[in-house]
Design a protein that fits this description.
By secondary structure, the protein is of the alpha/beta class. It is built from eleven helices and eleven strands. It is 36% helix and 19% strand.
C-alpha cells in the first residue's frame, strides 16, 4: 500500500471550498512527510479551473515526484449536496481533468435512485479511457450502509465502478468497519480514506445521517487511539490483498503540516507501507 495526502488537510471541516495553503505548500508537506501521492480536490484544482491552471498544477506535481491518487473535480461532490450527482450526467470534463493529472480514479456522488443509471452510463464512458469511478462510504448518500451500497454497485454492473472504504463514515452510520465489512467490500475497494473520530453524545461536532439521524462526535487526530482501530483496519486490508492508496483525509485539527507529517509517521509505525521515494524537496 502507498500513502496519499488529501487536499482536505488544508480545508476547514465545514468549508470545503477554500484552501488554507497553496498546492506547492501541500506538495512540500507530502514530499517531506514521505507520501507517494496527493488526492486532488476542487479547493486546489477542479473542472472550473482553466487549462493553464490545470497544466501548471500537473507540472508542479510531476516535478515533485508526486502522483495523483484520485480527483474530486467539483465542490458539490465533497459537500454532498443535491448537485453532487450532476457530474454523472456530464462526466467528460472530469475524465479530461483526470487525464491531465495522469490519474485513473475519480470520485462521484449518488444520492437518489435515478443516479444509479447515470452512474452506469458514466462508468461506461470512463471505461473507454481506462478510468475508474468511485464512491466513498458516506452519510446521506446511497453508500451509507454496507448492504445497500453493495446492491448499488451490483446494479451499476461495471467493473470500473467501486468504493472508497472509509471507516469513520461507516461508524457514524452504525455499521461495522472491521474485518467482516472489509472482507465483504474487498472486491470493490478501489481506494481508502482515513479520518479519525470518537463517538460522543455530547461531542462538539454533529453529522446528519439518513439511517440514524443526527450523530454527535469529536474529531481527533489519526494517531489518537480513542477512535478508529487503524492497526486492525490496515491489517485486514492487507489480508484481503488491497495494494492501492491509503489517503490521509483528516480535516485540519492542527496545522496542515502537523496533521500531514504526524499522520504519515503514525501510519508507517503501524503498517509496512511502501518506502518513500527519494526526490527533490
Amino acid at each position: 500500500m502507498k500513502l496519499s495526502l488529501s487536499a482536505r488537510v488544508g480545508e476547514q471541516f465545514f468549508n470545503k471550498r477554500v484552501a488554507a495553503l497553496t498546492l506547492s505548500e501541500l506538495a512540500d508537506i507530502a514530499v517531506t512527510s514521505g507520501y507517494h501521492a496527493v488526492c486532488m480536490r476542487a479547493s486546489q484544482v477542479g473542472v472550473h479551473s482553466s487549462r493553464e491552471q490545470i497544466a501548471e498544477a500537473a507540472a508542479l506535481l510531476r516535478r515533485r515526484g508526486l502522483a495523483v491518487s484520485m480527483i474530486t473535480g467539483d465542490f458539490a461532490i465533497p459537500e454532498n449536496s443535491d448537485e453532487g450527482p450532476a457530474a454523472l450526467r456530464a462526466i467528460t470534463p472530469f475524465l479530461d481533468l483526470a487525464e491531465a493529472f495522469e490519474c485513473k480514479l475519480i470520485r462521484v456522488a449518488l444520492r437518489v435512485e435515478e443516479d444509479i443509471e447515470w452512474a452506469r452510463r458514466a462508468s461506461l464512458e470512463a471505461r473507454e479511457r481506462n478510468i475508474r469511478l468511485v464512491h466513498q462510504c458516506h452519510n446521506r448518500s446511497l453508500f451509507e450502509q454496507v448492504e445497500p451500497m453493495l446492491r448499488v454497485v451490483e446494479r451499476i454492473g461495471c467493473d470500473n465502478f467501486g468504493i472508497t472504504y472509509e471507516p469513520a463514515n461507516l461508524e457514524l452510520c452504525g455499521e461495522s468497519y472491521g474485518a467482516d465489512t472489509i472482507t465483504r467490500l474487498a472486491p470493490h475497494i478501489f481506494n481508502v480514506y482515513l479520518q479519525n473520530q470518537r463517538l460522543d453524545p455530547a461531542g462538539p461536532s454533529v453529522i446528519n445521517t439518513w439511517c440514524r439521524g443526527p450523530i454527535r462526535f469529536e474529531q481527533i487526530p489519526l494517531w489518537d487511539a480513542r477512535g478508529i482501530n487503524f492497526p486492525a483496519v490496515l491489517a485486514q486490508l492487507a489480508a484481503v490483498g488491497y495494494h492501492g492508496y491509503v489517503t490521509v483525509h483528516q480535516a485540519g485539527l492542527n496545522t496542515p503540516a502537523i496533521d500531514g507529517s504526524e499522520s504519515a509517521r503514525y501510519l508507517r509505525s503501524i503498517h509496512g507501507f511502501a518506502p518513500a521515494m527519494e526526490r527533490p524537496v
